[in-house]
Design goal:
Blueprint: H1 5-17, H2 22-36, H3 41-44, H4 47-63, H5 81-87, H6 95-106, H7 111-129, H8 140-152, H9 173-192
Helix pairs in contact: 6-9, 7-9, 8-9
Length: about 190
């Protein structure tokens, strides 16, 4: 027997009086509708299809998360950012930052071109010894100071001619010298903290 709208309202009112809420009534109505509808999602698709769809959704969601693809790109991150900032200050307080800038000025190459050469030296070092392994060397400052001088002058203390190249890497000696200056600057900055 089908209830008329009037009767439905009365039954709803009676149910409320019994303490049953609208939420429960709505839930029961929803459940009865579900029973009449198509079978649930998981029974329509195979496990493989569900897994494939799940992966597709994860990939689409992953697209919206931050990404930075550095593979195959020039690795400027080898140059310590704190050193780069200090080299670009006009009034730096650090000795090794001033030395770096003075050496660049004495060279005929631009600051950026020299920095690119230093980056190549650091790439070679990262391949040979590991990325940033220079930070953990014992007596690092003394050793980098000695290496700086070796790349600036010969055994007799005579300055190397511009264009002189390192025998191992084939890169200009000035780039090797300035890589050591960067290391010394980094340690100088760490000591001041």
């Amino acid at each position: 027997m089908k209830k008329r709208p009037f009767e439905k309202d009365i039954y709803t009112w009676v149910d409320k009086m019994k303490g049953e809420s609208d939420d429960k009534l709505e839930e029961e109505a929803w459940e009865s509708e579900q029973e009449k509808s198509d079978p649930p999602f998981y029974s329509v698709y195979s496990d493989e299809e569900i897994e494939s769809m799940r992966k597709d959704v994860e990939e689409q969601m992953d697209y919206y998360h931050a990404h930075k693809y550095d593979e195959g790109k020039t690795d400027w991150g080898l140059i310590p950012e704190v050193c780069f900032r200090e080299l670009n200050k006009v009034d730096t307080k650090y000795f090794w930052a001033k030395a770096y800038v003075d050496i660049c000025k004495a060279s005929e190459l631009s600051f950026v071109r020299i920095l690119a050469g230093v980056r190549k030296v650091l790439e070679g070092g990262a391949l040979d010894y590991g990325r940033e392994s220079w930070k953990t060397i014992p007596d690092a400052q003394q050793r980098f100071f000695a290496a700086f001088n070796r790349h600036m002058c010969d055994d007799d203390g005579i300055a190397l001619k511009e264009g002189h190249r390192d025998s191992k890497s084939g890169l200009p000696s000035i780039h090797h010298a300035l890589a050591n200056v960067l290391f010394l600057l980094w340690f100088e900055i760490q000591e001041s903290k």
